[in-house]
Amino acid sequence: MAGYVPEIQQAVLPGGLRFLGVEYDRVPWVSITFMAKRGSEADPPGKAGVADCAAEMLTLGTGKRSQLELATDIEARGASLSSRSGWDATIVGLEGLAEDFPELMATLAEIVQTPAFPAEEFPLLQERRRAELAHLLDDPREVANRRFTRLFFGDAPYGHPPTGDLETLKNIGLTDLQDFYRREFTPADSTLVVVGMSSFARMTEEAGKAWQGWQGGGPASAPYTRAPERLCSPGLYLLDRPDLTQSEIRLGHLGLPRSHPDYFALRLVNYILGEGGFSSRLMSRIRSDLGCTYGIRSTFHFRRAPGPFVISTFTPAAQTALVVKEIKAVVQEVKEAGVTEQELAEAQSYYVGHFPLGLETARQIGSRVVSMDLYDLGWDYLQQYRQRIQEVTPDAAREAARKHLQPDSLTALVVGPAALCAKDLEALGPVEIIAQN
Amino acid sequence: MTLTRKLDPAAWQPEIEIVSYRLDNGLQLFVLPDARVPMVSLQLHYHVGSRYELQGITGISHLFEHLMFRGSETLGPEEFSRILQAKGGEINAFTTRDHTSYFENLPAEHLELGLKLEADRLANLKLNEENFQTELQVVISERKLRSVDSPFGLLLEQLFATAYTQHPYQWPVIGWDQDLKRMGLRECLSYYRTYYHPGNLSVVIAGDVKPDAARDLVDRHLGQIPSPGAPLPLKVKEPPQRGERRAVLKKVAQVEALFAGFHIVGMDHPDIYPLALLSIILSGGKSSRFYQEFVRPGRAVEMEAEIAPPPWTSEDADLMVLTAIAAPGQPLPQLEEDLWAALARFHQDGARPEELARAKKLLRAQAARGLAQNFYRGLLVGLFHLKTGDAGRVNQLLKLYEAVTLEDLQRVAQQYLRQDNRTTVTLKPVSPEESQALGEMV
After folding, report:
1. Which of A163, A300, B110, B329 makes the best surface tag, with the fewest CB within 10 Å?
2. Contact residues, chain B, for A99 at CB < 8 Å
3. pTM of the model
């Protein structure tokens, strides 16, 4: 084992919270992460955004300190606090100089254990979010990402942006945030991770001091693990934005859960298809050969339940239909003909060679450890990672492409000026015009 | 070194070890050895950016950065990236107003391959009309993404075009649309011959490498490429602004916004340090003045006073940019009035000692965090060398911030954040129909 692969040590704190620590000696930094293993998928129906609002609310005052006192004390140490909800987890992170480790640990514990949910902060939080969400409508990429999520998953738990939207924000009250916190923040379904310039013994001691009395709430809601029964029908959808000069394009179908045994094979196939920058087929075809875009990427969002597989790009509006057609052809080609042995070997050596670059900073290591814990990847995951990549055979890659790429099931969303692209799109098939929300 | 000492924050040394060499052909090399991760960051900084362009060929530096990936005598388009990526490399490039930088973060054992391919594209770049045209279309799409369709891209372009009347910082790095459309391969090749040679190049290698071995490798691959010598320095200065300038841009938008630019200094000027601290006091973090006064109560989506801190500050005098994005329903004129009132209070009273201490600690923390990455260490050294001629200054950085006093802060606020030195561009939202009636957005 090379010396730069971090060793993850673990302990269970007196209150039952799992604690994971990594000694990090590169710079005097410490990154502390608290994770509750439920996220925006646990937002109540019609109240998209509850988990993320609850996460922010934790930072707006505790039993001891106001929002201003918290912000001032944290920033006076040059540290930074972030608290947000994503898919499958809600994460409160505090990082700063290692010299301040005890204070940072105590502050994070105070925020997670004793939030005051001050009533006067809630209308301000809503006002800020209303403004941010309105402003997002000016960014075509955000509009496309958010609209695709809703279109594709509908009412399913992954069917809304974690920050919610203008409609659902109105339905959320302060008690919804308190309920989420009381239900989902419990030692039984949470983990504390520290990566920093400190010995594990000292980390455990500080963590023990700060967390031993924490009972939390619970029981947490049942983890969401199954694919929704109904999804959007495949086809072409157009959101007309006459003010834009380019179209934002998203094509996707249902992907796999993180626990799927084909994970490594499919990561490699997807690198070749659309994640490997200039080494990818989509970039080669759509950018290098056709000059139709500055960037294109495909991503399998591996989550606890099957997440989406999404291809994202943009192009001057008149070329929209051409790009949609070419993307489908490339996906079809990879599904049918698979990938070459050379492509696979290059994708493998990319991931193996690149591996240490993802382990330079405390935050990078922290987020690796968090996802190992969240998805039960095994404590030897980092040690085994390169081998798992190298073990994928050309046959396994071909099989993964054949099984998991579904060019005929793609849902395609175009956000762009209909006057410049609708007619050509109709030549590809029926186009359904959809509204912003 | 024992484990305990390695894990003792007090024993940590922030200094970057810099070993510098100059090759016979004028190439400047900096090696930053650090063996803790078996990787290197190889960086080639060419001292050419949009400030070296002329009206009519704006955007050529950035377009050329794209063309450097389009093949050589022996490699096809994008093969450069494919080969190095297949070794685990992270390959990219970026163009700024002052320099064009290419980098490969890759396993240390492949450093020589990286150098060989960089030398190949420097000496044997091969471009034909077809791949020139393809890449031009890519850049036109990039311009639409970054400027035309982005919420504030055109507004920022308007700000710089209004604030600078004589200095080439007035045009955007990506270039004006009509210049991109008229530019030809011939102009690009002539640009290449003027600026792409070892005499205009600084190489940085940061990571798991021995300095002398790195020097030998660089000499082997880049040492034989001839150079006509460094291009003549372009000395150009924006005259002092004598009164506020204002402009309005109308486009489809959900929110009203305002961007105000104040002429400040370039990276070599000592005032950049108090200015960086001032921007943190005004808007860095949730305890900052602007956040508490404007963002927290929901009056503004964003209220920022930004400068690009070293090493990102431009070489010549930059702008400090104040961004005010009004929340829907909040009148922009009132927000603007309150913003200037907040600045006036600072002129009058200056900062409190605890505000200065907080800003200094924040910069110290950011420095410590950044130094974990070879890529960032390399950029610090390369860009300080390029823009100030003094790579060693990176190791003085924390002391330079530490030396800033409360008086310095008040002085720079009064000196630079003045109405006469200000250019203000506002975004006025219009309907799609009104927008169309105003003509094409390019």
Report:
1. B329
2. 9-10
3. 0.96
